[in-house]
Predict the structure.
Amino acid sequence: MRITRRKAIAATAVAALGLTLTACSSGGDDGDGDAVDVSAQTTGAMEDYGVGTTFKATEPLEFGLMYRDHPNYPLKDDWSIIERLKEEHNVTFDIQSVPLADFEQKRSLLISSGDAADLIPSTYAADVETLTSGGALLAVSDYLDYLPNFQDKVEKWGLQDNLDRLRQADGKFYVLPGLLESPKPSYSIAIREDWWEDAGLEDPKTWDEFADQLEVIKEEHPELDYPYTERWSINGPMEATLQAAAGNFGTEAGWGYGDGVTWNGSEYEYTGASEGYKELVTYFADLVDRGLLDPEGLTQDDDAAKAKFTTGKAAAIGSNDQEAVVYRTGFEEAGNKDAKVKHLVVPAGPAGNIMDATTGGQFESGIALSSSAAERDDFVAMLQFIDWLYYSDEGLEFAKWGVDGETYTKESDGTRTLADDVDWGGLNPGASKFLNTDYGYYNGVWTLAHGSTTDLVKSTLTPEVQEFLDEMNQKDVAENGPGIAMDEMQREEASLLQTNLQDLVMTGTSQFLLGDRSLDEWDAYVAELESAGMSTYVQTVNDAAGVTTE
């Protein structure tokens, strides 16, 4: 994105010039081309704020913040991050605390009622797309000129096309996404590396090779009921692994199922009826049929799954880079210190060595703003604060690592080391304190992408996980397709259709995987989707995307 002279002024002379925001094609468009006047809303704003500037409000400010309260690190008023933001940046919060278990539902209710706090982090665009027409959320795309760090990273990292895909039918978007310099895939399969080595096996390069290796492990370890078990099946079967594998089968699945359509290069097609989805389901159904994949893995809770793996009742399990550490700890607690765990690079499949667009994306959970925030006298300062904390290199490092000399030290070459008494993710085992629990840092409320830059993302990863990330990022990434900008009427129709269609897909997927329904009935299953409005839904999507179909 080219930064115009007008944008440079907006970043450096807010109070002096009493600015107004003019609509522009790169993001300042308010839909009608009218200026958005903020000349009277510069209370606390810095005159010289821009890329490389440390934000500090010129007077104490308090912003409303909807806080997603995670049970693993419950909110504490005396956290270092809260105290530092107050002391060094003149910002405090009126916190609207919502327990994690109720967050999605409560967030929607608070937004719909107009009672949501000013700042609503931990939010994806898809989480609130049905809530934007009522006017309760701010069209943040109208104010990008006041986010110089955000714009700088969008331009440097080539994210403008991805950003434009967030735009709705009114030409605006309502969530500022967390940005990643490069994709950050995490989920895959963890294996008992010691058993693989004993059997003379190397890491599988393809999913077919993985299946063959499971046969070998099953033969070598007849005590196993099944060599491979699964987890993360709350809303559908093995959601994490199906998403991780999907790109290699030319489709989307699991957590990445999203809106239920996949771009095939020329138009959107319904994911759950596509040939790629059928191949994916067929592969894992075959594992179940051959006694290689534990059928309980499609429904069991996570604790049961982890127990099977860490007590030697399974040789492979769905995983992510952090869970691999959990598994190792589980083996130690079970008295098996010889067990070795390997987090596999996701194998290639019939479609190639590909990550689906969601896994290979560069957007993370972001931040929305209540529309009432734009009425505040300190609105410009609020935008500056958001831009500094969530998108500047300095703010990103602060929100993730904390304070140099308190929670970590930083060498002249850029190497960061946690303080002796502070741990995160097993980097400093045995430490008495944790970066998030005891200090409030590394918290998705204040750090949207846990680093954003590749350097910061990798800075808390073990060498093993860094290697995994590097190898995963050698994969191709499936094409996103054009943005789907539905108007309110299209969205209402599509939402109802997609809810019914997705219920059919998730039910059918479970049935096919477990063998409760034969894959010979695939055509009948597709006919059921058609009867539920599949073609109408896909046509609505393609129309909203501006795609001409035959």
User: Anything to note?
Assistant: Residues 188-355 form a domain with the D-Maltodextrin-Binding Protein; domain 2 fold (CATH 3.40.190.10). Confidence is low (pLDDT under 50) at residues 1-34.
